[in-house]
């Protein structure tokens, strides 16, 4: 293997050269960038930058080629049938907004949209708005106290009235990996359009859109070691052809008169205006980097790290972990509360010892309410983290306890 | 800078003014739904004079220590003294300069205090 996971991999990420002792555990919010990504973006700006799809001059064609190579790379990465199914957006949130907005245009008043109680605000709020506009009914697959979906009554929840299933592949709070293999076939059998929020999953799990059998899938570039400012919406080509565009303007049209316009074929139909050119090219480099490591190798490494994290965190007195206890049902994302210590204090004390974690509701307020807690501290691990980082976290947590638990 | 200085921890561990009074003339509650912090401030006054200032609530070290320092300072002060209390006063009294995200915590009690006057 070209790359070794864990501590050695930090050598590929310049931020860890700049901050030698940084223990970065906020990867569920955004990941650090390997130098191959920075170099690809830098090279574009230095050698071939121009707007894409416009110029007939050579550097514009070079930039366009690099931009379109990223699209091919993303298509292969998620096993899309064709790169025409890959739309570049600003981030996963925009991709999920496009999906909700455009799919809702196909629905009728009274149609049901099924979500889960795990959903992040980006997968929930666009549907709340669409429901208001189109008089749709929102239903939720409940979550149990362990943060797992309750599927006992699923055949009563998914019915022919269910026109959309919008579901996260992995929770950004509990780390729960959802049962897509069970839910997607049921939703498809009921005739629903299935939208996957893969914002968290893309960093941790292999994604094969054809094997999953979903209709639309969204993720961000910055959570898979690419730059911020670019996301992906994948959709089945025949569905994308049917959907209304979300934004109008240059690049997405076929013919325009002063009175009317016709639209280009996907993906251009959904990429109005100048896209995030360097960011798309950076994302292409990030995906190549991840492919060189291999999704299976990532899964195996992170499974061990998740098991170790669970085992070590369980030993911290007064700590209550949110999410499944079995490492096979979750990713290396650990949200927790500590008796007698406020999440903000934990995050500040950890920051003092060089450990970066997140405190708050992680854009999932209803889920926190479900667990009866206003906020949690979240430590989220990825491929450059190691057991040593788990150790630094646990030492920091013990320090917080000593300082603040009376 | 380490936020968890001895004086801050001392106010957090041993609050001087953490109670509720029933005969308050001024009171207000503010909360931060993002982290679940909640501070209530109660003032008992006689004319312009604050006879007693107390607080109740839940939150992080910074918000609770700031609430207690604020209430302690207010004892026997005039109501007009509240006008002179601002962000800089809180930072100076805490003796630490929190990052912008944590400063919000430290300013929550002051927000409650100002709201209590507006409520009246």
TrEMBL record, chain B:
Residues 4-118 form the NIF system FeS cluster assembly NifU N-terminal domain. SUPFAM superfamilies: SufE/NifU. GO terms for biological process: iron-sulfur cluster assembly. It comes from the Bacteria. Gene3D superfamilies: 3.90.1010.10. One of its GO terms (molecular function) is iron ion binding. Pfam families: NifU_N (PF01592). This is NIF system FeS cluster assembly NifU N-terminal domain-containing protein.
